[in-house]
Write a structure and sequence with these properties.
Helix content is about 20%, strand content about 25%. It has three helices and 18 strands. Strand 17 and strand 18 form a beta hairpin. Helix 1 crosses helix 2 and helix 2 packs antiparallel against helix 3.
Length: about 180
């Protein structure tokens, strides 16, 4: 992630508008018609500016307002209807599964109404082999540990430890995940 680009964009409305228009153009092309999986991958990786990876799978539609601050690992699956607000940066580890209609939001605003126009970016980091269930929301600054599960509909406001299941609003730890290593 290029933190200088993030900071420059957030401080310069013209830069943000240009980047947002680019993302809108590419997401419209991605979402506007049926494409073979190879074309979907090509459009997605053009959007994020990362070298294309054949192990990646996306079911459109997909929405983002910036695009350039998304990084994905190997064997990542993103289901239909996801919305990534990525100005603060989003990193998705290998073998992650992201359910339909998941929202990853990396920006907050100041609470004071007089300063509410000021945005505060913070990255979201999703570890390896994470499963995020349908309609979950992850807020700025959250890290989800390797092997964790986020239950459908959860709102994740705090870091999630590795190999745990979280759910609810706000999400809380429901249980530890037992693996062959822990049995």
């Amino acid at each position: 992630m290029e933190n200088q680009e993030i900071a420059l964009g957030l401080q310069n409305p013209a830069v943000m508008r240009a980047a947002s228009e680019r993302a809108l153009r590419l997401t419209q092309e991605l979402n506007g018609a049926y494409h073979e999986p190879e074309k979907v991958r090509a459009l997605f990786f053009a959007l994020i500016g990362q070298p294309e990876d054949d192990s990646f799978c996306l079911f459109p539609p997909f929405y983002t307002d910036y695009g350039k601050n998304i990084r994905v690992g190997k064997n990542v699956f993103i289901n239909t209807g996801c919305r990534f607000q990525d100005q603060g940066g989003i990193v998705i580890g290998d073998n992650a599964l992201i359910g339909h209609n998941v929202v990853l939001a990396t920006l907050n605003h100041e609470e004071d109404p007089a300063r509410r126009h000021i945005m505060r970016p913070a990255p979201i980091v999703i570890g390896q082999s994470v499963w995020i269930g349908a309609n979950a929301t992850v807020v700025p600054g959250v890290t989800i540990g390797d092997g964790a599960i986020v239950a459908a509909g959860a709102v994740v406001t705090k870091d999630v430890p590795p190999r745990t299941v979280v759910g609810g609003v706000p999400a809380r730890i429901m249980k530890k995940i037992k693996t062959e290593e822990t049995i």
